[in-house]
Amino acid sequence: MMNKRLKQGSTFLLAVALTFPLLTLPGAKAANAINTGQKCSIEFDISGNSSELLSASIPVNLYKVASVDESGNYTGIGAFSKLDLSSVSADNLDAAAATWAERAKEAQGKLTDSEGNTVVDPTETVTLQNGRGYQDKLDTGLYLVDTPKVITTNYTYTFTPYLVSLPTNNYYNNDQTSDDWIYDLTKEYNSAVGLKTEQHVRYGDLVIKKELKDHNATFGNNATFVFQIDITTLDKKTETRIEELTFSAAGDDSVTITKIPAGSHVKVTEVYSGASYELASAKSQETDIIANPEKETEVEFKPAEVSFINKHDGRTNGGYGVKNNFKLDENGQYQYTKPAAKN
């Protein structure tokens, strides 16, 4: 009878293991009526994520979307009054989860107008510190959980919006042993709520600077210098790129290598120093990549850079180098041969 009651209810609760970690969807019918006057609490716990995310301060916005009656039926309120919050069958949990996910996206879309201006303020904002946050004294009802993008040193994190019912029911999450209403979604009641996050790599640039102290004008040839850039990302993936600089006279120049994963360690080696030139600086130099600024973050910014100096070695050879074409192989590595010099 317990399972039948849940299927006949206006909505149901489940732990969506395939979609959300430690996350529940809107509530279920239970053996007893909801005490609509009782206050509720919610605890968010995202432990198990990256240390960079856990060290960030994460604002989680709660918007009350609907009221709930004693029988567990929802009625949309305010900007959400026209949301479809009708019953969803529990016979196919994946389909039900997809339906509630669509409803959450629709609710999220009502938070701003067509120009992106905020038109609905949060009912409450829970700030997660060290991956955890808690809010009490919440009215019963259906809430949209919406978390803005979080920007950290090397990554950005986006969060999937979802709807959660207060109170809720752990029937599916507790091996079908209890269908009591739970007014406190906390670890104490094995009901702490998670957030579904997606990690996105930030990218940065590398500037290779070159100073050519003097130029061999023999035959009027240009002088080409070639650099090998070995990249090791934070997750230990490796990549090699090749770049070059060509001078027609003494002076300073630079080349910028773009879209390198932030936090990567790079080693830059001058693998060809042109005919009649020698290095007056280290052959190889190393640095770490800094993420390019985003609108919400860094104001003053200077990308990672390395510098090389060359001088004429006294020979009268003329010559130049050529930059080869490279492409990624099946292992994600750039395949190349060292550029040839023509004398």
TrEMBL record:
InterPro entries in UniProt: DUF5979, Ig-like_fold
Limits of the DUF5979 domain: 207-311
Signal peptide range in chain numbering: 1-30
Alphabetized Pfam families for the sequence: DUF5979 (PF19407)
Domain of life where this protein originates: Bacteria
Record keywords: Signal
Keyword tRNA processing: no
Full protein name: DUF5979 domain-containing protein
Organism: Coprococcus comes
Origin organism lineage: Bacteria, Bacillati, Bacillota, Clostridia, Lachnospirales
